[in-house]
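Tip: read the tokens left to right.
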């Protein structure tokens, strides 16, 4: 719980008398820590979305919504009713204050991470369109995206050794 204690979203944890929050708030990608430790071959993975990938992700989600609307429009009365109900629920709950807080924090963390990642020998930045901060159930899909990006980076990785 401490590793995901995002301020204003998940409560900080008390461990050994210390109040602990997500370390990504201060150092989203631990390149600086590795440099201080004397590590001289660093492969960094920055999973934070860039402002550009956030915009592409938003466009992707809008396209999916448009396709769902068109599909419902061609479907039965029940399909149309179901779509209207689901759309209403989504409008009531999304975006919410947690989305705004987390997306704002991710934007700041991305800027910190990008600056820190400049010191890495290899940077891998897997981008998953349409993924939200709370999409914990999509782990297998996200791992596959990371594996794909790592494989694409193998030549760069091999070149530092």
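Filled-in amino acids:
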């Amino acid at each position: 719980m401490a590793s995901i204690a995002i301020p204003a979203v998940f409560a900080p944890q008390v461990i050994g008398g210390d109040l602990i929050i997500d370390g990504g708030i201060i150092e989203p990608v631990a390149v600086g820590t590795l440099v201080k430790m004397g590590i001289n071959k660093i492969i960094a993975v920055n999973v934070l979305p860039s402002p550009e990938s956030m915009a592409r992700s938003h466009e992707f989600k809008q396209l999916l919504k448009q396709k769902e609307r068109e599909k419902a429009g061609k479907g039965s009365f029940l399909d149309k009713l179901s779509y209207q109900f689901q759309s209403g629920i989504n409008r009531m709950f999304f975006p919410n204050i947690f989305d705004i807080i987390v997306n704002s924090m991710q934007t700041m963390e991305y800027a910190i991470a990008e600056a820190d990642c400049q010191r890495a020998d290899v940077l891998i930045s897997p981008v998953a369109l349409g993924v939200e901060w709370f999409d914990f159930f999509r782990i297998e899909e996200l791992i596959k995206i990371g594996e794909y990006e790592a494989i694409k980076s193998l030549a760069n990785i091999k070149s530092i050794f």
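Residues 28-159 form one domain. The chain has a mean pLDDT of 89.
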